[in-house]
Amino acid sequence: MNFSQRLHEKVNEIWEKTHQHPFVDGLGKGDLPVESFIRYMKQDYVFLIDYSKLFALGAVKARELDTMAAFAKLLHETLHGEMELHRGYAARFGITHQQLEETKPTPINLAYTRYMLNVAQNGSLEELISALLPCMWSYWEISKMLADKYPEASDHPLYGDWIKMYTSDEFGSLAIWLIGLLDQLAEGKSERKLGMLEEHFLTTSRFEYMFWDMVYEGADWPV
Questions:
Q1: Which of 8, 160, 185, 188 is the most exposed place for a label (fewest CB within 10 A)?
Q2: pLDDT digits (tens, 9 = 90+) for 37-59
Q3: Active-site positions?
Q4: DSSP the chain
C-alpha cells in the first residue's frame, strides 16, 4: 500500500459524510438553494485567493525545476481557471469582481486557510501537499461521484459548469500529479513523519466537510 492509499482509507469515513452532505447532493440533483450556492461561490473565491498562495509556496519549496513548473501551472490554473468559473457565476448574479474580492471570510474559512498557510510556511514540501491535497482530491472525487450518480448533472443550467470543471481531465490530471508527488516524498520517511502528514490530511479533510456545512447553513460570525 502506498501512502496515498493509506490516507484515503484513513479519511474514508469523513469523505463519505462529505459525499452525502445535502449541499453536495444538491449540486448533483440540481435542487440546491441558489442562496446557498451564492454563499459558497463568494466564500470559495476568497478561499482560493489563499489557496493559490500554497501553490506559490510549493514552487518555492520545490527541489526540482519540473516540480516548480508544475506548481506554477497549478497556481495559473487556480487563478485563471477555477477563479474564472467563480467570476462567471458572480456575473450571473450581478456580483462584481470587487464585491467578490471584498467578501469577508467566515470563521471556518479563515481557520481553514490559516491552518494550511501555517503548515505551508513552516513545514516541508510534503507537509504543504498533505494539507492542501484533500481539497483538490475530494473535489475531483465528489464531481465524479455526482456525474455517475446523476448523469444529467453536467447539463444543469446553473450547476452543470461546476460539475464539468471538476470532472475535467485537466483538473483530474493535476490532482493525480499531486497525489503521486506526495507518494514519492513520503518514501523512506519515519512513521513519526508519516503520522504528521496524516494528521494534516485528516485535519483539512475535516475542514472540507465543515466548509460545505458552513455555506449550506449560512454559518458566520456570531457577534
A1: 188
A2: 999 999 999 999 999 999 999 99
A3: 135, 208
A4: --HHHHHHHHTHHHHHHHHT-HHHHHHHHT---HHHHHHHHHHHHHHHHHHHHHHHHHHHH-SSHHHHHHHHHHHHHIIIIIHHHHHHHHHHTT--HHHHHTPPPPHHHHHHHHHHHHHHHHS-HHHHHHHHHHHHHHHHHHHHHHHHH-TTGGG-TTTHHHHHHHHSHHHHHHHHHHHHHHHHHHTT--HHHHHHHHHHHHHHHHHHHHHHHHHHHT-----
